[in-house]
């Protein structure tokens, strides 16, 4: 009896693996045509100045609405796209679309909004990354000074000469750089010291109320103080409550992003949102 169950368990484990593999193959094939089929979209989430509530700009977040599987969360297909190399066309699609959308909004409203684009490690480390980036800026007409590139800590962990050179070039072009999910990866304080980065985005896990609340607060305050003394701005991700907003404002966090202000929105909703909030702060 026990043996039978063991066999079943092995069998179901195997079929589970097979399912996962099949799903990945399906997703990989489908991703190849997703942008042509109009299944990809970008949603935009505002970043607001903590003190004034004024909108600084938006983070572009990719969305894939799969024809049969429905909504697929970005980390699931971006990691797959990294493995297959599909991240290159995907990343370029995101970049072009984000620059184009925000340029259009700025032109129409007479604003100077920034746009933050998530760039995957593979994209960033490619030799032609800067050339492609320049090309997209030229094509779309978005001023380089309105763009932020968001990188995860993993990108910088090896701190290669080439990566450092790329960061310096981005800075000289006037493009901002942010370390995303700061505090969750292989954080090393020395790269804040050594690398030309303009923002750190404090991971939202540090905002969570918990038994460790006071410990989180100590980290939040520590990161803000340290970043400011190094000339970096701090963005808090995942701000959901008025209490968090007030706490971060008191601690002199520069920018806030989260459901409290707005969820990521597709372009039509963003236009509506901005129409309702032009002139006055969020
Ligand atoms: P991220 O760059 O750290 O983006 C922030 C994530 O937090 C987004 O999830 C956003 O929807 C979510 N978020 C924002 N405010 C709140 C809040 O108040 N509460 C909570 N619980 N969540 C909030 P999303 O859109 O599912 O994206 C997940 C991750 O996928 C991103 O994390 C980013 O690492 C990656 N990603 C998204 N778009 C792209 C892209 O175009 N390219 C690449 N390479 N990665 C992307
Ligand atoms: Mg991000
Ligand atoms: Mg983030
Ligand atoms: Mg995050």
UniProtKB/TrEMBL annotation:
Lineage: Bacteria, Pseudomonadati, Pseudomonadota, Gammaproteobacteria, Oceanospirillales
EAL domain segment(s): 24-278
Protein name, UniProt field: EAL domain-containing protein
Full-protein interval shown: 576 to 857 of 857
């Amino acid at each position: 009896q026990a043996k039978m169950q063991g066999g079943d368990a092995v069998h179901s484990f195997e079929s589970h693996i097979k399912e996962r593999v099949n799903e990945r193959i399906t997703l990989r094939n489908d991703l190849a045509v997703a942008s042509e089929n109009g299944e990809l979209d970008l949603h935009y989430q505002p970043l607001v100045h903590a003190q004034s509530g004024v909108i600084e700009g938006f983070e572009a977040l990719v969305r894939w609405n799969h024809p049969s599987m429905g909504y697929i969360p970005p980390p699931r297909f971006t990691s797959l796209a990294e493995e297959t190399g599909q991240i290159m066309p995907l990343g370029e699609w995101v970049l072009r679309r984000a620059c184009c959308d925000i340029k259009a909004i700025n032109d129409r409203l007479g604003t100077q909004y920034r746009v933050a684009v998530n760039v995957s490690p593979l994209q960033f480390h490619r030799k032609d990354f800067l050339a492609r980036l320049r090309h997209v800026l030229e094509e779309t007409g978005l001023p380089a000074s309105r763009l932020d590139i968001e990188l995860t800590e993993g990108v910088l962990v090896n701190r290669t000469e080439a990566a450092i050179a790329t960061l310096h070039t981005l800075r000289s072009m006037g493009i901002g750089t942010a370390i995303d999910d700061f505090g969750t990866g292989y954080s090393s304080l020395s790269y804040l010291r050594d690398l030309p980065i303009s923002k750190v985005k404090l991971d939202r896990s540090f905002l969570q109320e918990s038994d460790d609340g006071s410990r989180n607060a100590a980290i939040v305050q520590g990161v803000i103080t340290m970043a400011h003394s190094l000339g970096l701005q701090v963005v808090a991700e995942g701000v959901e409550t008025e209490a968090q907003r007030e706490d971060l404002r008191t601690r002199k966090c520069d920018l806030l992003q989260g459901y409290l202000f707005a969820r990521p929105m597709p372009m039509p909703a963003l236009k509506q949102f901005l129409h309702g909030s032009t002139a006055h702060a969020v």
